[in-house]
Amino acid sequence: MIIIAVGFLVSGLIMYVVGYDPVAAYSAMFFGSEERGLEGAFGGIRGIVSTLREASFIILTGLAAQVAFSAGVFNVGVEGAMYIGAFVSFVVGYALSFPASAATNALHALLSILAAMLAGMAWMYVPAYLKIKRGAHEVVTTIMLNYVAMFITELLVVKFFLPATGIPPGGILTPDISPSAKVEPVQLLGVDFSLGILPTLLVAIIALIVMKRTVVGYSIRAVGASPRAAKYGGIDVDKIILLVMLAGGAMGGLAGAIDVQFIEHKFNQAFSPGYGISGIPVALIGRLDVLGVVVAGVFVSALHIGAQSIQPVTGMPREISSLIEGVIVFSAALPSVIEIIRSYLKRRGAGS
Amino acid sequence: MSEILVDPIIFVSLAFGAIRSMIPLLLGSVGESTLERSGLMNLGVEGIMLMSAFASAYGSWVTGNPLVGLLCGVIVGAVLGLLCGYLSVKFRADQVVLGLGLTTFSLGLTETLTMAVWTTYGYGKSVPRMPPLMRITIEGIPYDISFLLPISVGLAIAAYWVLYGTKQGLAIRSCGENALAADAAGINVPMVRYATSAFAGALFGLAGAYIAIDWNNIFIRAMTGGRGWVSIALVIFSGWNPLAAIGGSLLFGFFDTLQYWVSASLGASLLPAQVPRMIPYLVTVLALAVYGRRARGPAEVGKPYVKE
To answer: Of A82, A192, A206, B101, which has the maximum CB count within 10 A?
Structure first.
């Protein structure tokens, strides 16, 4: 909680110094602006639905980062796995076409999702292998591979799904997937509510059980606490590192499939404003706790959706959310400073 | 591909392109090598470069003097580098998280400031740029050589000389190998690490300034394009040796420039533009794959040292 407060305070200070009104910005962010018809992150049903749609990605990428963090691994490559997963889910959704019935639709959708998750795992196997066998630092390799994944999907879409005349004004998009692979949104108080949050919450429940109740979860935390002690205790450290990275790849792949099947129904090269990278602050805010990550994921999603309302109200760009996230991550790197603030607050609380 | 080596005009333009692209990579890896030799690690290179790129464009915009802009970039870089060093030493910050946070922050900050200064989204307005050191004309095509080419190569040589040829360099290296022993030998470990932090930050700042007001003459969102990360990979590739970084950054600069050349010369018909754009990132991963384990860096990189 303290790092979030620090994030808002420091960012507000920067806005103020630069000449913007931070109070107006934050109020637009969370509650929108009635006169402009904006709902911010929580100011109405449309805002809330948007925030939850965003959260279906960000909780997943946050969990991917958090599971890796728990084992002391910095997996920044979820973004790349997302691109690969989204593209593969598109290919399976586009190439196959099932007769229309509830059962076959569910089968097709499930097949595409599984393919995307496998593709994400395969993609993440590369940096995991390089870390375990070659000692390559995963932060650098995964960030480099994120760029590579983006270019690979762009290449494939441009090569096979766009006219040879060049990139159309709509952007780098594929045609729609088959109707049988689409998961349509439901109506909720007159607003389209995407069901993408459901697989995300399912993954969160699985992660919660694995991390809290199984030997695997215990081993992951043991490796994170001290790889040497874990090894001494008979845990195969390399296997745990591989496991957490592949799990991150699968979650990234799923996040990509959610965009293709639940939301856009096509592969859009510009679908991610950096969901994978946002997983880092989410994991840090949520600390090493799955429920914390779910709450933090909703919070960071609210930052993103709210930032879109900041733009028309105050004139600040929507990247203002990166500013706040950056300060939060930065302060998360400083547990001792946070501890100083906490004990100061406690002392003041006790004194007054 | 064989015609690259045969056609002299293409060879010359690729060579000059590689020299242009190597400068920020060299500055980044010389700074990071020196810093890591002293036992600290800064993964915020990308963020510092981006913020310095903005600062230099802003300085050049306000004063109309690109030299002032360059200085702004260097100062911002040094201050940010020192801040990271201070937080790492004094508050035992997690250096990986710190770097990631700084990089995320830099994107939001520069975007907000671009809007505040130029009221445009995503890119600023053109600003006065650094004049070239010299202009070489070959076959009627002019090629500019930047002032920062001799400066960055000179800094690499100087960093090598200081690290391996002076008493101060021995102190720096001993902080990275065994801080406890260095402390026992009377070396002020925090002081050494602050100095290398500020030095590294200044070099990252210079690299950012080069990208914004020498290579280009405008600030563009995320214009550093992952070069900070490539610099970190180069540190490993060159074995924490600033001299080897000269060769390494020239090689990476070549791959960086190859992408522009392939898209401009071959056209999308032969090779789609995305393939050459992937090259620098793929080569970085490959380099890490090959050199990752063989390379042995300073023993205590990233390990906070607390005096008992």
So the answer is: A82
Percent of chain A beyond pLDDT 90? 39
Closest Cα partner for B32 from B289, B296, B241, B306? B241
| pTM of the model as a whole | 0.86
Predicted confidence band at A352 (pLDDT cuts at 50, 70, 90)?
very low
Give A296-317 pLDDT, tens digit per residue. Answer: 999 889 888 888 888 777 778 8
Q: Is residue A346 part of a domain?
A: no
The count of domains in chain A is 1
Tell me how many residue pairs between chain A and chain B have CB atoms under 8 A apart: 163
Percent of chain B that is helix, strand, coil (3-state, to 5): 70, 5, 25
Instruction: Tell whether A182 is covered by a domain.
Output: yes
Q: Both tokens of residue A42?
A: 């929580």
Quick: pLDDT tens for A205-262.
Answer: 999 999 989 999 999 999 988 888 888 888 899 999 999 999 999 999 999 999 999 9
B121 touches chain A (CB under 8 A): yes
Nearest-CA distance A129 → chain B (Å):
9
Report helix, strand or coil for B83: helix
- ipTM value of the model? 0.83
User: What is the CATH code for B10-125+146-291?
Assistant: 1.10.3470
Q: Give residue-wise pLDDT tens across range B146-205.
A: 999 999 999 999 999 999 999 999 999 999 888 888 988 889 999 999 999 999 999 999
The answer to whether position A24 is within a domain reads no
Q: Is B7 helix (H, G, I), strand (E, B) or coil?
A: coil
> How far is the CA of A183 from the CAs of A151, A241, A260, in angstroms?
27, 34, 9
Task: Look up residue B91 and give its two tokens.
Answer: 């508050």
Query: In angstroms, what separates the C-alpha of A329 from chain B's closest C-alpha?
Result: 5
Where do the domains of chain B lie? 10-125+146-291
Of A134, A151, A335, the CB nearest to B289: A134
The answer to whether A326 contacts B87, with C-beta atoms less than 8 Å apart, is no
Domain assignment of residue A8, yes or no = no
